[in-house]
Design a protein that fits this description.
The chain is α/β, with parallel strands linked by helices and 351 residues long. It is 40% helix and 15% strand. Helix 4 packs across helix 6.
Length: 351
């Protein structure tokens, strides 16, 4: 079978910021940052972290990314996914602008609202947010973030927030602020007009976590068609995917560990065949190829395994190596060093 084109396809890696808590092995915490350095050295595009205040305890996302930015030089940093409705928008805009600036414009935000399980809804109530209003709160927060990153003396009187004459400084390194990828299309459905508006009004692309390849193709086609109707340049939009896998030669053993790992995170088995595959490199490459044909250009890879660093090494040798040849030269591996090209934020579109 001929090789499928992988030009412009990039890969990021999710760092295991919760595993050491689940397993009560606090001494493993520094391995997270060693892994981030290794991700950069291996030529990956970016490193990502999840977000939760109480429902699924982990290292705080933005603090962690600031430390990762300090330990790396060109590696993109991102959230997969961040929950803006849990935060107050002025302080959030200030924090994110500072993080984008000190990282040299390397920040991308995958954003969503979180699950609807009791622990996640309790998380909202614990910070004084009505879970039933989290969608409209998300939209208003995204609107305010874009305004606060780009305007002076912002005044806003909305459903959730009222601010007067607010100017957030410093400005982010990126002109519109950190790139925003929306977690949409996670149940295989066509996107609603409201979802499309979130992507095109405030976002820079999509990052589903549970869409199958054919579903992703339809969703991305929807986004492209809507972008054309609204005059949004498709080249400014990134088709990303949160891609959960387990690499192992023994399929049944891989399935068992992935299942055990995921049930330590989530209160019930909700992923079905929408996450994975669990198994050998050939199976994972086939799924990646199917998603590339469906339009994906940024894979955010989460290993459903207790030993994420070991999975990273295998994935690099047996999967990533096939696609890495289509990427531009890595500045650290090609001798760029401090005098090489400037840092490239993750998800900057094809190529």
């Amino acid at each position: 079978m001929p090789e499928r084109s992988s030009d412009g396809v990039r890969f990021g890696i999710v760092l295991p910021t919760r595993d050491f808590i689940v397993r009560e092995r606090m001494e493993d915490c520094p391995r997270i940052f060693d892994m981030a350095e290794r991700v950069e050295a291996l030529g990956y595009d970016s490193a990502w972290v999840g977000d939760s205040l109480l429902a699924r305890p982990r290292l705080e996302a933005l603090t962690t990314l600031a430390f990762v930015a300090g330990r790396t030089r060109r590696l993109g940093i991102g959230t997969s996914v961040f929950l803006p409705p849990l935060r107050e928008p002025v302080l959030l805009a200030y924090t994110l602008a500072s993080l984008d600036l000190i990282s040299g414009g390397r920040l991308t935000l995958g954003v969503g609202m979180g699950a609807k399980d009791p622990a996640s809804l309790h998380e909202y109530r614990s910070v004084g947010v009505d879970p039933d209003r989290r969608l409209s709160r998300l939209e208003e927060t995204l609107l305010l973030l874009r305004r606060l990153w780009t305007e002076q003396a912002v005044t806003h009187d909305g459903k959730h927030f009222h601010i007067e004459n607010v100017t957030v400084l410093p400005r982010p390194a990126q002109p519109r602020g950190p790139r925003i990828l929306l977690s949409v299309g996670n149940n295989g459905d066509q996107l609603s007009p409201r979802q499309l508006n979130r992507v095109l009004a405030w976002g820079d692309g999509i990052m589903p976590s549970r869409a199958l390849p054919d579903e992703y193709r339809r969703i991305w086609a929807q986004v492209m068609a809507a972008a054309g109707q609204r005059g949004r340049d498709p080249a400014t939009l990134t088709p990303a995917l949160y891609f959960t896998i387990h690499l192992g030669d023994d399929v049944r053993a891989a399935e068992r560990e992935a299942d055990e790992f995921l049930l330590s995170y989530y209160p019930r088995r909700h992923w079905g065949d929408r996450w994975g595959p669990w198994g050998p490199a050939s199976t994972i490459r086939e799924r990646i190829d199917a998603f590339i044909e469906a339009g994906v250009r940024l894979f955010v890879v989460r290993f459903a395994a207790w030993d994420a660093p070991a999975q990273l090494e295998r994935f690099t040798d047996e999967v990533f190596a096939r696609y890495r040849s289509a990427l531009p030269p890595h500045p650290l591996l090609a001798g760029g060093g401090e005098g090489g090209r400037s840092p490239s934020p993750p998800g900057r579109g094809p190529g």
